[in-house]
Amino acid sequence: MANETLILGATGKTGKRVAEKLHKMNIPIRSGSRNGTPPFDWDIPDNWNAVLNGIKKVYITYQPDFVAPGALEKIQRFVDVAKQSGVQQLVLLSGRGEKEAEEGEAIIMTSGLHWTIVRASWFMQNFSEFFFLDNILGGQIIVPKPKALEPFVDLDDLADVVVETLMDDRHKGKIYELTGPELLSFRDTIRIISNVINRPIGYEEVDMDSYVKMLRDYQIPEDIIWLMQYLFTEVLDGRNESIRNDIEEVLGRKPTTFHEYAIKANQTGVWNIS
Questions:
Q1: Residue 150 carries which DSSP code?
Q2: Where does the NmrA-like domain start and stop, copy by copy (predicted)?
Q3: CA 88, CA 72: separation in Å to the nearest integer?
Q4: Dist CA 13 CA 171 (whole Å)
Q5: Which domains does the chain have, with CATH numbers?
Q6: Which listed site, 83, 138, 216, 243, has its alpha carbon 20 to 30 Å from 176?
Q7: How many other C-beta atoms lie within 10 A of the C-beta of residue 109?
């Protein structure tokens, strides 16, 4: 189908939300994932022409992170193929205050195509869909001692912003930084979740070496261990300890608080102990 919007990472945390919202708006989409038709894989560029055929807009997410070896080269190659295929608009999910992410942004911004950059702080849903879910279910969370507070952002807010940038031309050429409305420590987030689920959750901060050993003992994949080290040592160093109003600017409403997110997540039963 012509004029479809391609959603890279369409089965991931942000991509699936963007895809669902566009589908509800009757906007034709193409799933950019290994299970898509045709399949998309960052490591198989021979498939990219088929994936991009007839596409005018692309939402780009890169996994696992811009700091991964070869990430920037793959993004550059993808943008080149997209341009040759007739794509007109790119929306990139990026990180706040990350050098490698800014280099990825530069590739998009100098592509000659219409672009929007969406920089996100840490996802609230990391506590209910990924990193910390098992810890919460187990009643104990252990993290490296963070150096700063974080304005955690709700993924539904983020997806709403991405949809707006894809649908409204006024967002072209803009960089948005998405944060929640409050600066929180990890201890704060666990206290809020504990209060919402009415169940105690232990909280402990350890040094990085102990944290890495713990992850390896649990047989966590090395790429995830590496990413967690990077996030806790490089990103959570105070550079992003600020709140922005970009969500309200784009959506005309206040961003979701962590307490509101926790109530919403708890209603799904994700933190129930069977």
A1: B
A2: 106-262
A3: 20
A4: 23
A5: 4-120 (3.40.50.720), 124-152+181-241+254-274 (3.90.25.10)
A6: 83
A7: 17
The pTM of the whole model exceeds 0.85: yes
Q: In angstroms, how far is CA 113 from the centroid of its own chain? A: 23
Residue 114: alpha-carbon gap to chain centroid:
21
DSSP H or E segment with residue 144? strand 140-144
DSSP annotation of 88: -
Phi/psi for 39 (5° steps) reads -70, 150
Taking only the tens place, the pLDDT of each residue in 158-205 is: 999 999 999 999 999 999 999 999 999 999 999 999 999 999 999 999
DSSP string, 154-178: -HHHHHHHHHHHHH-GGGTTEEEEE
Q: What tokens were used for 25?
A: 């708006």
Q: Which of 236, 196, 186, 230 is nearest to 212 (CA)?
A: 230
How far is Cα 247 from Cα 173, in angstroms, rounded to an integer?
16
Mean pLDDT for 241-269 is 98
- Give, in order, the Cα–Cα distances in Å from 254 to each of 5, 15, 153, 210, 257: 27, 22, 12, 39, 9
Window from 14-18, 71-75, 99-103, 123-127 with minimum mean pLDDT: 99-103
User: Looking up tokens 């003992």, which residue turns up?
Assistant: 217
Nearest to 152, CA basis, from 271, 235, 267: 235
Q: How many CB atoms lie within 10 A of CB 138?
A: 11
Tokens 């990193």 — which residue? 131
